[in-house]
Amino acid sequence: MSETLVVRLGASNAGLAEWIVVDDTGACTLAPAAGPVAGAAALASGRRVVCLLPATRVLRTRADLPVRNQNRLALALPFALEDLLAEDVDELHFASGVRHANGRISVAVIRRTHMDDCLALLAEAGLAPKAIFADSDGVADLAVTTTILLEDSQVILRDPGGDAVAAETDGLDALLSLWLAQARPAGDDGLTAPRQLQIYDATTDGWPNLFWEGLQAQVPSIEVRRLPDGALGRLAAGVAVSPGVNLLQGPYAKRSTFASYWPRWRLAAALIAALGLTMLLNAGLETWRLKRESAALELELGQAIAHTFPGSAAQDVRALVDQRLQASDPQQGRAAGRQFLDTLRTVAGAITRTGNAQIETLNFRTGIMELTVRVPGADSLDSIRKLVTEGGQLNAEIQSSNAEGEQIQGRIRITPATKTGGA
Question: Alpha-carbon distance 309 to 324, whole Å?
Answer without folding.
Answer: 9
